[in-house]
TrEMBL record:
This is Dihydroorotase. It comes from Methanoculleus marisnigri. GO terms for molecular function: allantoinase activity. SUPFAM superfamilies: Composite domain of metallo-dependent hydrolases, Metallo-dependent hydrolases. Residues 173-205 are annotated as: Disordered. Residues 48-120 form the Amidohydrolase-related domain. Residues 176-187 have a biased composition (Basic residues).
Amino acid sequence: MTADLVLRNVMLPTGRRADIVIAGGVVRHVGAAVRADETIDCSRLTCLPGAVDMHVHMRGGMQAEKEDWRTGTMSAVAGGVTVVVDQPNTVPPITTPGLLRARVREAEEHAVCGFGVNAGVVPGADLPGMYDAGAMAFGETFAAPSSYGEGLDPDTLKELFARIHALGGLATLPPQHRRLGRGRTRHGGGDAAPPLPRAGYVRGG
Protein backbone atom coordinates (compact mmCIF):
# COMPACT_ATOMS: atom_id res chain seq x y z
CA MET A 1 0.00 0.00 0.00
CA THR A 2 1.19 3.51 -0.84
CA ALA A 3 -0.25 6.37 1.18
CA ASP A 4 -0.55 10.13 0.83
CA LEU A 5 0.34 10.63 4.48
CA VAL A 6 1.58 8.54 7.39
CA LEU A 7 1.39 9.77 10.97
CA ARG A 8 4.18 7.82 12.65
CA ASN A 9 4.43 6.73 16.28
CA VAL A 10 1.02 8.05 17.28
CA MET A 11 -0.21 7.30 20.80
CA LEU A 12 -3.66 5.72 20.50
CA PRO A 13 -6.36 5.94 23.21
CA THR A 14 -5.51 2.34 24.20
CA GLY A 15 -1.94 3.33 25.05
CA ARG A 16 -0.54 1.55 22.01
CA ARG A 17 1.77 3.32 19.57
CA ALA A 18 1.15 2.83 15.86
CA ASP A 19 1.31 4.47 12.47
CA ILE A 20 -1.86 5.91 10.93
CA VAL A 21 -2.01 5.55 7.16
CA ILE A 22 -4.07 8.08 5.19
CA ALA A 23 -4.88 7.86 1.48
CA GLY A 24 -7.40 9.92 -0.42
CA GLY A 25 -8.26 11.82 2.74
CA VAL A 26 -9.36 8.62 4.51
CA VAL A 27 -7.69 6.60 7.28
CA ARG A 28 -6.88 3.32 5.53
CA HIS A 29 -4.80 1.47 8.10
CA VAL A 30 -3.58 1.69 11.68
CA GLY A 31 -0.52 -0.40 12.42
CA ALA A 32 2.80 -0.97 10.70
CA ALA A 33 4.42 1.66 8.51
CA VAL A 34 4.02 1.85 4.73
CA ARG A 35 5.55 4.07 2.08
CA ALA A 36 4.02 7.53 1.87
CA ASP A 37 4.37 10.80 -0.01
CA GLU A 38 4.55 12.61 3.33
CA THR A 39 5.45 11.46 6.83
CA ILE A 40 4.92 13.30 10.11
CA ASP A 41 6.56 12.22 13.36
CA CYS A 42 3.86 12.22 16.04
CA SER A 43 5.92 10.68 18.84
CA ARG A 44 4.76 13.32 21.31
CA LEU A 45 1.13 13.39 20.19
CA THR A 46 -2.03 11.41 20.99
CA CYS A 47 -4.69 10.68 18.38
CA LEU A 48 -8.33 10.60 19.46
CA PRO A 49 -11.42 9.72 17.39
CA GLY A 50 -13.47 12.65 16.16
CA ALA A 51 -16.37 13.49 18.45
CA VAL A 52 -20.04 13.42 17.45
CA ASP A 53 -22.11 16.35 18.75
CA MET A 54 -25.75 15.23 18.81
CA HIS A 55 -27.17 18.63 19.75
CA VAL A 56 -26.27 21.70 17.72
CA HIS A 57 -28.28 24.65 16.36
CA MET A 58 -26.72 25.77 13.10
CA ARG A 59 -29.30 28.53 12.56
CA GLY A 60 -28.66 29.87 9.06
CA GLY A 61 -31.49 31.11 6.87
CA MET A 62 -33.22 34.06 8.55
CA GLN A 63 -30.91 33.72 11.57
CA ALA A 64 -27.64 33.55 9.66
CA GLU A 65 -26.25 36.56 11.53
CA LYS A 66 -26.01 34.32 14.60
CA GLU A 67 -24.36 31.34 12.90
CA ASP A 68 -24.60 29.29 9.74
CA TRP A 69 -23.48 25.88 8.57
CA ARG A 70 -20.04 27.11 7.55
CA THR A 71 -19.16 28.98 10.74
CA GLY A 72 -20.80 26.41 12.99
CA THR A 73 -19.04 23.41 11.49
CA MET A 74 -15.72 25.26 11.38
CA SER A 75 -16.08 25.77 15.13
CA ALA A 76 -16.95 22.11 15.54
CA VAL A 77 -13.88 20.89 13.67
CA ALA A 78 -11.65 23.28 15.62
CA GLY A 79 -12.85 21.53 18.78
CA GLY A 80 -12.32 17.99 17.50
CA VAL A 81 -15.94 17.38 16.46
CA THR A 82 -16.25 15.67 13.08
CA VAL A 83 -20.02 15.02 12.95
CA VAL A 84 -22.82 17.33 14.10
CA VAL A 85 -26.57 16.69 14.34
CA ASP A 86 -28.71 19.76 13.76
CA GLN A 87 -31.64 19.97 16.15
CA PRO A 88 -33.36 22.74 14.23
CA ASN A 89 -34.40 25.78 16.22
CA THR A 90 -34.90 27.71 13.02
CA VAL A 91 -37.05 30.37 11.40
CA PRO A 92 -39.13 29.03 9.76
CA PRO A 93 -39.48 25.75 11.71
CA ILE A 94 -38.58 22.55 9.85
CA THR A 95 -42.08 21.08 9.57
CA THR A 96 -42.41 19.89 5.95
CA PRO A 97 -40.41 17.62 3.64
CA GLY A 98 -39.57 20.61 1.43
CA LEU A 99 -38.13 22.61 4.32
CA LEU A 100 -36.16 19.57 5.50
CA ARG A 101 -34.68 19.00 2.04
CA ALA A 102 -33.76 22.69 1.77
CA ARG A 103 -32.03 22.46 5.15
CA VAL A 104 -30.04 19.43 4.00
CA ARG A 105 -29.06 21.19 0.76
CA GLU A 106 -27.84 24.17 2.76
CA ALA A 107 -25.69 21.85 4.87
CA GLU A 108 -24.35 20.02 1.84
CA GLU A 109 -23.22 23.32 0.32
CA HIS A 110 -21.60 24.84 3.39
CA ALA A 111 -20.75 22.28 6.10
CA VAL A 112 -17.07 21.37 6.50
CA CYS A 113 -17.71 18.20 8.54
CA GLY A 114 -20.21 15.36 8.61
CA PHE A 115 -23.77 16.19 9.61
CA GLY A 116 -27.29 14.95 10.23
CA VAL A 117 -30.49 16.99 10.18
CA ASN A 118 -33.46 16.41 12.46
CA ALA A 119 -37.07 17.37 11.78
CA GLY A 120 -39.19 19.73 13.86
CA VAL A 121 -41.79 18.37 16.28
CA VAL A 122 -44.85 20.59 16.49
CA PRO A 123 -48.58 20.01 15.99
CA GLY A 124 -49.36 20.00 12.30
CA ALA A 125 -45.85 19.00 11.23
CA ASP A 126 -45.72 16.45 8.41
CA LEU A 127 -43.95 13.76 10.42
CA PRO A 128 -44.40 10.90 7.90
CA GLY A 129 -43.32 13.11 5.01
CA MET A 130 -40.17 14.28 6.80
CA TYR A 131 -39.36 10.73 7.89
CA ASP A 132 -39.60 9.58 4.27
CA ALA A 133 -37.50 12.60 3.22
CA GLY A 134 -34.63 11.32 5.36
CA ALA A 135 -34.92 13.05 8.73
CA MET A 136 -32.27 11.57 11.00
CA ALA A 137 -34.56 11.97 14.01
CA PHE A 138 -37.34 14.23 15.31
CA GLY A 139 -36.40 17.12 17.58
CA GLU A 140 -35.36 19.24 19.23
CA THR A 141 -38.70 18.73 20.97
CA PHE A 142 -39.52 21.75 23.09
CA ALA A 143 -41.33 21.32 26.39
CA ALA A 144 -40.52 24.97 27.21
CA PRO A 145 -40.92 28.13 25.08
CA SER A 146 -38.55 28.53 22.13
CA SER A 147 -38.37 30.18 18.73
CA TYR A 148 -40.89 27.52 17.70
CA GLY A 149 -43.40 29.11 20.09
CA GLU A 150 -44.84 27.89 23.35
CA GLY A 151 -43.60 24.61 24.76
CA LEU A 152 -45.64 21.50 24.05
CA ASP A 153 -47.96 20.29 26.80
CA PRO A 154 -47.66 16.69 28.08
CA ASP A 155 -50.70 15.40 26.16
CA THR A 156 -49.43 16.83 22.88
CA LEU A 157 -45.96 15.42 23.52
CA LYS A 158 -47.44 11.99 24.17
CA GLU A 159 -49.42 12.10 20.94
CA LEU A 160 -46.45 13.23 18.86
CA PHE A 161 -44.14 10.63 20.40
CA ALA A 162 -46.69 7.91 19.62
CA ARG A 163 -46.80 9.02 15.98
CA ILE A 164 -43.00 9.07 15.75
CA HIS A 165 -42.81 5.61 17.34
CA ALA A 166 -45.34 4.27 14.82
CA LEU A 167 -43.06 5.47 12.02
CA GLY A 168 -40.08 3.69 13.55
CA GLY A 169 -38.45 7.06 14.16
CA LEU A 170 -36.44 8.47 17.04
CA ALA A 171 -37.46 11.51 19.09
CA THR A 172 -34.92 13.71 20.86
CA LEU A 173 -35.62 16.28 23.54
CA PRO A 174 -33.58 18.48 25.88
CA PRO A 175 -33.85 18.34 29.69
CA GLN A 176 -36.72 20.81 30.08
CA HIS A 177 -39.91 20.88 32.02
CA ARG A 178 -42.59 23.38 32.94
CA ARG A 179 -44.50 24.25 36.07
CA LEU A 180 -47.65 25.93 34.90
CA GLY A 181 -49.34 28.75 36.76
CA ARG A 182 -46.54 29.60 39.18
CA GLY A 183 -45.41 32.72 37.36
CA ARG A 184 -41.82 31.55 37.20
CA THR A 185 -39.70 32.30 34.20
CA ARG A 186 -36.37 31.30 32.79
CA HIS A 187 -34.72 33.48 30.16
CA GLY A 188 -38.02 35.29 29.79
CA GLY A 189 -39.66 32.02 28.79
CA GLY A 190 -43.21 32.29 30.11
CA ASP A 191 -43.96 29.52 32.59
CA ALA A 192 -40.69 27.66 32.19
CA ALA A 193 -39.41 26.36 35.51
CA PRO A 194 -36.17 27.56 37.09
CA PRO A 195 -33.10 25.51 36.23
CA LEU A 196 -32.48 22.16 37.90
CA PRO A 197 -29.23 20.22 37.97
CA ARG A 198 -28.90 18.03 34.88
CA ALA A 199 -28.82 14.91 37.05
CA GLY A 200 -32.24 15.88 38.35
CA TYR A 201 -33.63 15.87 34.83
CA VAL A 202 -32.11 12.47 34.14
CA ARG A 203 -33.78 11.11 37.29
CA GLY A 204 -37.05 12.62 36.17
CA GLY A 205 -36.86 15.87 38.18
